[in-house]
Amino acid sequence: MHAQLVLLPGDGIGVEVVEAGVNVLDAVGARFGHTFEYQRGLIGGAAIDATGAALPDETAEMCQTADAILLGACGGPKWDNPRATVRPEQGLLKLRYILGVFANLRPVRVQPSLADSTPLKAEQIRGVDLVVVRELTGGLYFGKPQGREEGPNGRSAVDTLRYTEGEVKRAIHFAYRLARARRRQVTHVDKANVLASSRLWREIHHEIAPEYPDVKHEDVLVDAMAMHLIRRPATFDVIVTENMFGDILTDEAAVLAGSLGMLPSASIGEALNRHGLPRGLYEPVHGSAPDIVGQGIANPVGTILSVALLLEHSLGLTAEAQAVERAVDAALAAGLRTPDLARPGETRGGTEAMTTAIIERL
Ligand code: IPM
Ligand code: MG
């Protein structure tokens, strides 16, 4: 197959991990006989520096015609002034919004070989295989009004948490369809004891659940979920929740996998690419990690597993996706460790060593 992919390295270690992802894509292409054509675009702080906009029109246009997009990370201390009107993260949010990728899948699997890399007990995390479906284009991230004011009583600021029925329904249906292809269990996470938007989510969840009688379901309050995710992570299959709860819970879930550097994500909507599959946006869950940028030690696994998700969801290349996942497992089992995964005394490799080890095992 021939696919047209857009690469958006963005800022900080985004550049390093996307390079690793491209090396894996090229290796998959060579091994399985596909050609991947790349177009590179600017986003985030790098785009602000070059053009003044966090998502230049040129980038937006190339993404809207690509088969899929691989993104690194947006943001960094250079652009962190809280009073700035243009912020790197706005580029990412706008891209998610214009692509209409409302469902953000964040799978969390525990590699047996990394059981020692987490601060949790091995028996607590054994068998963890869950996926968070985070609603990605609504809620606090996009609600209006949003902003600051200065009044007689000083400064104030407002964010708005609004969801429409349609936004909630499509996210919940997405989660149930995904559960049917997995272990048939949905955990809906909200704060229905306090928030009106959460009560709407819960109400709609209860209307939809009977349409999937073969799928077990539960509602869990988000504060309790923060605890259950650590205490009984292996009991979850598909977790569905609104935008901000999903953002927070997935950083927490990363602890289960050993490091935030391990988690991939796929963002999917209704738009289809020229292969008749979703035009997805694929990115590691981690950020731009300014503290380690340029040192060649960023963990590329989150991005490489995002490449696997891209192959599967946007290109329909399931065998290729599985080959990448197995190669990651094998490299980790062989003891490859970036510093975020290494325990004291373990040999640490960099981004390149990890990527090469994965490619060798494809
Ligand atoms: C994520 C990130 C982003 C988010 C930031 C960089 C805007 O934390 O993808 O989880 O909050 O969605
Ligand atoms: Mg986040």
Structural descriptors:
12 helices, single chain, binds magnesium ion, two-stranded antiparallel ribbon, Isopropylmalate Dehydrogenase, alpha/beta, ten-stranded mixed β-sheet
Structural write-up:
By secondary structure, the chain is α/β, with parallel strands linked by helices. The strands form 2 sheets. A 10-stranded mixed sheet has the order 2-1-3-12-11-4-5-10-8-9, with helices on both faces. The protein contains 12 helices and 12 strands. It has 2 domains: 205 residues, 3-Layer(aba) Sandwich (Isopropylmalate Dehydrogenase), CATH 3.40.718; 139 residues, Isopropylmalate Dehydrogenase, CATH 3.40.718. The mean pLDDT is 96. The longest helix has 19 residues. It binds 3-isopropylmalic acid (IPM) and magnesium ion.
Number of domains: 2
Identify the strand order in the major beta sheet. 2-1-3-12-11-4-5-10-8-9
Quick one: CATH superfamily of the largest domain? Isopropylmalate Dehydrogenase
Low-confidence stretches: none
Helix fraction bin: 25-40%
Mean pLDDT figure: 96
Radius of gyration: 20 Å
Portion in strands: 15-25%
Please summarize the sheet with the most strands: 10 strands, mixed
CATH class of the largest domain: Alpha Beta
**Count of extended strands:** 12
CATH topology of the largest domain: Isopropylmalate Dehydrogenase
